[in-house]
């Protein structure tokens, strides 16, 4: 009765929240399972950024409700952004949902499940749902547990599957909420006011992850570049966010640092210079443009111009010539004309993105843009979407092709989907597939790139001839980190 399946929709923040919920539940004796058909409790951690994401989760909840007929104690929970956005109204259409838990209450999920199970055991009639979408001071500090801390509890010799593979990369939540008021965006409603975690708590969490073998940290927040702006002063022109990057950079064992999502207005000189100054800061920037038209940027309440955006890209390329860029674009914002879109297309092409998330504008009720007339027809949004996707495919393909014949530093992540080969990522966040030895998981290794698809690289580890590691039966690849930084040991 304690098998929990968690399905996550949406962004990396949601994935991180789900992981924290899973870790808390494991700590309470629940079992986290991968098979949705073999669970007693299904939790859907939802996304509200676009209507399609909400509809997907609602459809899933409706579909799995039918299971209650043959499994009367089956529990369905809706967590996160859609729970926050729709609240108890979810129960109007989905009365079988047991839990509706908002974004500031993830840490209460174990208590609520305990209570629900106790009530059922005591014979309380099924049908009493729990809704909690209240705000809670300090809730930003509750997303801190990692599965890595409780890994032993869920797998291993007690028959629950093989021991987990070592975790190489981890997300760390540094902040919740956003105060920017972009006119298209539901996030300030679903995630609340901007609240940052204390720097020491974040650094302690990163240090603990490093001690457990994590090599790559991605700092997460809705607007990470504003991190700590109310809690910490700038020191010598360095923002609290860059101060945090510096502190994480000092942690022994952490080899790579990434972050998402920033705001263009956070890219002042201190952050740009950080790319030249902090070698662990990977040369991959997600820089949401949203639109390349000044008129539309103004309508969106995005406080920068296309020229300013272009300058940031240029400054970052100057600081780090090998930089990889990704972005978010919304096509078909209300009132976006062909001329506006042409401006976006031109800037999109000029920025030469390696990766991009292109969204068709979706009306979010309660936002300023939802009230605007002049909606762009769906077919036109789709056309604009395809124009940008074609450019992205070309640019991304050109970049990956240019890597053939080069040697890239790859952080070995684990087995690929087939289980026969391994995957890893370059510093530019390109997925690589290659043959390796399991002992190289968590190592930085040189990979010679031999082949590339639009977004994936295939290659061979650069062998260092016969050496000590080969003699021990490990792969003979030389971990780059061994030479670069003394705290990475060879396999
Ligand atoms: N419609 C379409 N895309 C949206 N995004 C946010 N709100 C909307 C909306 N109403 C996109 C933005 C944001 C990303 C996470 O989702 O591009 O950066």
Can you give a write-up of this model?
Helix 1 (12-27) packs across helix 6 and helix 10 runs parallel beside helix 12. With 491 residues, the chain is an alpha/beta fold. The longest helix is centred in the C-terminal third of the chain and has 25 residues, at 378-402. Strands 2-1-3-4-5-6 form a six-stranded parallel β-sheet, with helices on both faces. Strands 15-16-17-19-18 form a five-stranded mixed barrel. The chain has helices at residues 12-27, 51-65, 81-86, 90-93, 109-121, 147-154, 187-191, 199-211, 240-249, 269-277, 294-300, 306-319, 338-351, 378-402, 468-471, 480-484, and strands at 3-8, 31-32, 41-46, 75-80, 99-101, 130-132, 169-173, 175-176, 195-196, 216-220, 256-260, 284-286, 324-331, 355-360, 407-415, 422-426, 431-434, 444-452, 456-461. The chain is built from 16 helices and 19 strands. It starts with a strand and ends in a 7-residue tail after the last helix. The chain is globular and about 65 Å long. Mean pLDDT is 92; it is low at 153-159, 466-476 and 481-491. The chain binds 5'-deoxyadenosine. The site of 5'-deoxyadenosine (5AD) has 12 residues, from strand 13.
């Amino acid at each position: 009765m304690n098998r929990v399946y968690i399905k996550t929709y949406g962004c990396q923040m949601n994935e991180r929240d789900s992981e924290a919920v899973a870790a808390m539940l494991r700590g309470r004796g629940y079992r986290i399972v991968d098979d949705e058909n073999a669970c007693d409790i299904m939790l859907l951690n939802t996304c509200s950024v676009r209507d399609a994401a909400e509809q997907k989760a609602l459809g899933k909840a409706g579909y799995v409700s039918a299971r209650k007929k043959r499994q009367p104690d089956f529990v369905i929970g809706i967590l996160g952004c859609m729970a926050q956005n729709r609240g108890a109204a979810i129960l109007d259409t989905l009365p079988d949902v047991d839990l509706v838990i908002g974004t500031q209450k993830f840490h209460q999920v174990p208590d609520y499940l305990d209570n629900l199970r106790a009530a059922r055991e005591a014979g309380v009639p099924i049908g009493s749902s729990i809704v909690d979408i209240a705000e809670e001071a300090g809730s930003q500090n509750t997303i801190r547990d990692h599965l890595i801390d409780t890994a032993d509890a869920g797998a291993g010799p007690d028959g629950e599957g093989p021991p987990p593979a070592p975790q190489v990369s981890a997300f760390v939540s540094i902040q919740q909420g956003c105060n920017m008021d972009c006119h298209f965006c539901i996030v300030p409603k679903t995630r609340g006011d901007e609240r940052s975690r204390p720097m020491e708590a974040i650094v302690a969490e990163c240090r603990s992850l490093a001690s457990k073998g994590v090599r790559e940290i991605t700092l997460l927040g809705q607007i990470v570049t504003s991190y700590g702006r109310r809690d910490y002063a700038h020191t010598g022109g360095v923002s609290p966010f860059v101060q945090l990057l510096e502190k994480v950079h000092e942690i022994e064992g952490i080899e790579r640092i990434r972050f998402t999502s920033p705001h263009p207005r956070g890219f002042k000189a201190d952050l740009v210079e950080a790319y030249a100054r902090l070698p662990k800061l990977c040369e991959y920037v997600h820089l949401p443009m949203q639109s390349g038209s000044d008129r539309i940027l103004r309508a969106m309440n995005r406080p920068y111009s296309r020229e300013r955006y272009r300058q940031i890209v240029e400054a970052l390329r100057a600081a780090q010539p090998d930089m990889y860029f990704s972005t978010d674009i919304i096509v078909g914002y209300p009132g976006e004309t062909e001329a506006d879109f042409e401006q976006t297309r031109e800037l999109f092409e000029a920025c030469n993105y390696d990766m991009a998330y292109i969204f068709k504008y979706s009306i979010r009720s309660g936002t300023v843009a939802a009230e605007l007339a002049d909606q762009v027809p769906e077919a036109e949004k789709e056309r604009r979407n395809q124009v940008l996707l074609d450019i992205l495919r070309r640019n991304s393909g050109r970049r990956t092709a240019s890597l053939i014949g080069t040697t890239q530093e790859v952080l070995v992540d684990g087995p690929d989907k087939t289980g026969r080969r391994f995957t890893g990522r370059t510093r530019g966040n390109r997925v690589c597939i290659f043959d390796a030895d399991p002992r190289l998981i968590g190592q930085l290794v040189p990979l010679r790139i031999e082949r590339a698809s639009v977004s994936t690289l295939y290659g061979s580890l650069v062998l260092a001839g016969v050496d000590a590691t080969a003699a021990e039966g490990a792969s003979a690849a030389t971990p780059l980190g061994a030479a670069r930084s003394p705290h990475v040991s060879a396999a």
